[in-house]
Amino acid sequence: MKKTILFILFLSISLPMILLMTDVEIATFDMKFYEDKYKEHNIPEETGISMDNLMDVTSEMLDYLKGKRENLIIFTEVNGEREQVFEEREILHMVDVKELFNKGYIIRNTMMVIFIISIVGLIIFNRKAIGKALIITSIWPAVLMGILGLLMYIDFNKYFTHFHEIFFTNDLWLLDPKTDILIQMLPLDFFSSIAYRILLFFVVELALVLTIGIFLDRRNTIIKK
Q1: Close Cβ partners of 192 (under 8 Å, ≥ 6 residues apart)
Q2: Does 88 fall in a domain?
Q3: C-beta separation of 160 from 187 below 8 A
Q4: Which one of 16, 66, 76, 198 is CB 3.0 to 4.6 Å from 141, fit for a cystine?
Q5: Which domain holds residue 195?
Q6: How many Å apart are CA 18 and CA 15, to the nearest integer?
Q7: Sequential pLDDT tens for the chain (225 residues)
Q8: Structural domain tally of the chain?
Q9: The three-state (H, E, C) secondary structure of 17-71, written as one string
């Protein structure tokens, strides 16, 4: 019984973490999403960079976060003149962002190991508990995401600021929209849109986990009868 509870606990923590971090990765590296947002907010005019060049800069920026390039020293045409896109403060902030992503990958890989151990443990010691474990796994993060979604709806800027204060140890994320191209490219609305997108992905996945859990739990009930 104690082993079952322990495996359920591990499962209920690891699976949501895996799903959420994967959703963040998918949303962050979706180039089509960037293109749509650039068009929606007329970012080429805001930055003085053509759409084609903006997409090239974005691709290189995302490659940096993926570890495919060493730095963010990127040059392109800005208002008709070739110049470096990101200044020192922006580059240093992106160093912090990349480090955050790296930590996220480590956590997700760790959670993957814990998830596999949990599933194998339940199969060995109490296969019938898997359904209930999945139901539990889907409910608590759904409630948490509901609260988070409500808070973001009430005042996204406030909680976006809290996020930065929690996860960053400096104020490099405080950029000037008048001069810093990074914040011109990615205004607050971009981050609110991507946050709701991640939230939607996550809730849909939790609904699927809940459905599978209910199916397995009912099947076990029918088998008992």
Answers
A1: 152, 156, 160
A2: no
A3: no
A4: 16
A5: 2-50+102-224
A6: 5
A7: 788 999 999 999 999 999 999 999 999 999 999 999 999 999 999 999 999 999 999 999 999 999 999 999 999 999 999 999 999 999 999 999 999 999 999 999 999 999 999 999 999 999 899 999 999 999 999 999 999 999 999 999 999 999 999 999 999 999 999 999 999 999 999 999 999 999 999 999 999 999 999 999 888 766 555
A8: 1
A9: HHHHHHHHHHHHCCHHHHHHHHHHCCHHHHHCCCHHHHHHHHHHHHHHHHCCCCC
- Residue that the structure tokens 């992503």 belong to: 101
Query: For residue 125, what are its two tokens?
Result: 């010691």
Beta carbons of 193 and 28 less than 8 angstroms apart? no
| Three-state secondary structure call for residue 83 | strand
Q: Is residue 62 part of a domain?
A: no
**How far is residue 84's CA from residue 91's CA, in Å, rounded to a whole number?**
11
d(CA 203, CA 196): 10
**Cβ atoms of residues 128 and 134 within 8 Å:** no
Would you say residue 178 lies in a domain?
yes
The tokens of 115 are what? 């998830």
Extract the tokens encoding 105. Answer: 């990958």
Owner of token pair 């406030």: 158
**Does a structural domain hold residue 127?**
yes
